[in-house]
Amino acid sequence: MNRTGIITLLTDFGLSDPYVAMMKGVILSISPDSRVVDITHDIRTGSIIQGAGVIQETYGFFPEGTIHLAVVDPGVGSKRRHIAVKADGHFFVGPDNGIFWPVIEMNEDAVIVDLNREEYFLSHITSTFHGRDVFAPVSAHLSTGKDLLEMGSVIEDPVRLDMPVPSKRTDYLYGQIMRVDHFGNLITNIRRDVLEEFLGQYDPVISVGNLEIKKLENIYSDADKGYPLALINSADMLEIAVNLGRASEYLNLNSGEEVGTMVKVGRYR
Amino acid sequence: MNRTGIITLLTDFGLSDPYVAMMKGVILSISPDSRVVDITHDIRTGSIIQGAGVIQETYGFFPEGTIHLAVVDPGVGSKRRHIAVKADGHFFVGPDNGIFWPVIEMNEDAVIVDLNREEYFLSHITSTFHGRDVFAPVSAHLSTGKDLLEMGSVIEDPVRLDMPVPSKRTDYLYGQIMRVDHFGNLITNIRRDVLEEFLGQYDPVISVGNLEIKKLENIYSDADKGYPLALINSADMLEIAVNLGRASEYLNLNSGEEVGTMVKVGRYR
Amino acid sequence: MNRTGIITLLTDFGLSDPYVAMMKGVILSISPDSRVVDITHDIRTGSIIQGAGVIQETYGFFPEGTIHLAVVDPGVGSKRRHIAVKADGHFFVGPDNGIFWPVIEMNEDAVIVDLNREEYFLSHITSTFHGRDVFAPVSAHLSTGKDLLEMGSVIEDPVRLDMPVPSKRTDYLYGQIMRVDHFGNLITNIRRDVLEEFLGQYDPVISVGNLEIKKLENIYSDADKGYPLALINSADMLEIAVNLGRASEYLNLNSGEEVGTMVKVGRYR
Fold first, then answer.
1. pLDDT tens digits along A122-179
2. Is the distance from CB of A177 to CB of A260 less than 8 angstroms?
3. Are C134 and C128 in contact (CB under 8 A)?
4. Residue B254: how many CB atoms within 10 A of its CB?
5. Contact: A219, B21; criterion CB under 8 Å
6. pTM over 0.90
7. Among C75, C77, C129, whose Cβ lies nearest the Cβ of B218?
8. For residue C14, which residues of chain B lie inside 8 Å, CB to CB?
9. Within an 8 Å CB–CB cutoff, is residue C40 touching chain A?
10. Rounded to the nearest 10 degrees, what angle do helices B19-30 and A48-58 cross at?
11. Whether B58 and C21 lie within 8 Å, measured CB to CB
């Protein structure tokens, strides 16, 4: 597999501490020509599910041969394995805690390696910062062209992740809000194809909290200023928004509790 | 025009979502040697005026041949055009909503192109994320040396933007606060030359809210700790600050309402 | 000394204004092949001590020959000198206000240069933004291989910084909290070696506010979910944390007042 020299980073570290910069320093020390691109460092603390969702949604926009380093790792230092995954033309490096499960599940020929060769780590491994001491050096070595299979042993039993999926019960499709974005848009786990199959010839009735929306719009400004709407977003997911406003505030949900809120879709003709 | 391979990004997307990273992935897929530099992703949601001001203030510090991609785009998906501008040795790519108007207005020989050649976009265009699907690929193609004139048709009627400008009435100069920066400094729209022409031989009396300042200082520490001052800042604009403090808190303006507040300048001998 | 072309940035500028981007534009204009890496721009406003601590903790993870540009500069425009330091294989560029003192103190052969050669600055120097007008161009010139000794005069009297150090009184070791990180972890100024020498054969009794911890753990998940713990962190400092929680909230300290809080260590067998 060709290597682009691009390494993406996704963590829940934030940017106010030097943790991300230390990882970049380690990477550049080993692989001076690599280019590091931040995906985000604002994953909700310890939320493997959110991290897994963002990786799945994002990696395909990078060229094949990119290495995606992800650290959302509440169990750092415990006996969980370090893994690297080769799938769909990309590499993924991080803890074996399910964060790469959606990628593995979608790619039957994914190769998963238990990173047990310590010569690819920093010489001194702390017990609380494997992002810097293990995953950054492994990613850097991969970017220089090192063979993944030399960096550990192939495994077949990676940790799985239960991602919440929509369910159909009687005449309704039940999903949930997965993420509130910077604009206050509520991003659900209902994919376009699932919704279309459920609706068939019918129109939707989308309920979230006290809000009921009976139509799918194409763009935000199809609704009047300050009015709520639903659309299929740029990641092909059902999204609840307010034109020139914040759906997260429009709905009377308690702040910070939007994630996990039920989204119920009915149908009418 | 030479190309530096540098592409700057300015958006109101924030950094907690993967939207900016998706744009970078698209850019690197098309133009692997380009280098992307963030200007800021914290433009106030939908504030074309703030975005336009920051671009105007910033682009000249980059080398000629740089491409400036800007997405503050509340009308995404509507019929507004996509444009690219060549002006003052730089390129600008984004929505035709006025965000580049200050640059166009200052450069009589600016060339403006309606980006209507879809072969320079991603193959699948969503209706809600033109930053990723249109502006990122166009910018990337430009950075590889593609001719701007092949990417669309020259237009003469770009959307204009009413930037608030200072006005002189009777014996006073009236401006307003355009931006509160990270330090709580209040940045006005009164340029050094406008102020100097107004003042002539006189000294200023600067009024904002209940505050009156009768002098221009050179540096923040010319005022005592915790005291307010006015100075001409590094962008040549009149700025109200508090030494080792926050002017935005010192003034009894409601938080978030500073922008737009009137700044009145009188003169005395 | 070889040059890697890497320039790191540390400031208290935040990322919502274009100030950091302007510095990057200036750097790339002078040194097109340099690569700029952000350490952090969220140093507490004006906190030279916090900036100095983060630099000391971080620089060693970058390759030798890296240039570290740091601007925490409440006295910008006053008569304080501009300096560059060569120490431990790295360069450091910024104001002479003590921010590099910990690096200088640790490296007896550090060379310190008063940057008094204006041909290495921007042609127009403002009095309020030396990060852009002085330190960015100097760093860029250094990265192209310019000799540090040609950029100014060697000095022997850099401004020193009083970093708070732990003290031993009667049977106790007294330190303090230096930083609250993104996870709410409380990072003290007590180094592993200082603690180990103090404890000898004894076990610790660590007191912060009302909290008493009688044990050092190895990893966060050694404590039950929501319970406090102490450990030696990845920077070899004593740290107070809460497993899957925030120590900064667990302790009944007023928000924002954690920094400076006393940490007292006793011992028992």
1. 999 999 999 999 999 999 999 999 999 999 999 999 999 999 999 999 899 999 999 9
2. yes
3. no
4. 8
5. no
6. yes
7. C77
8. 181-182
9. yes
10. 30
11. yes
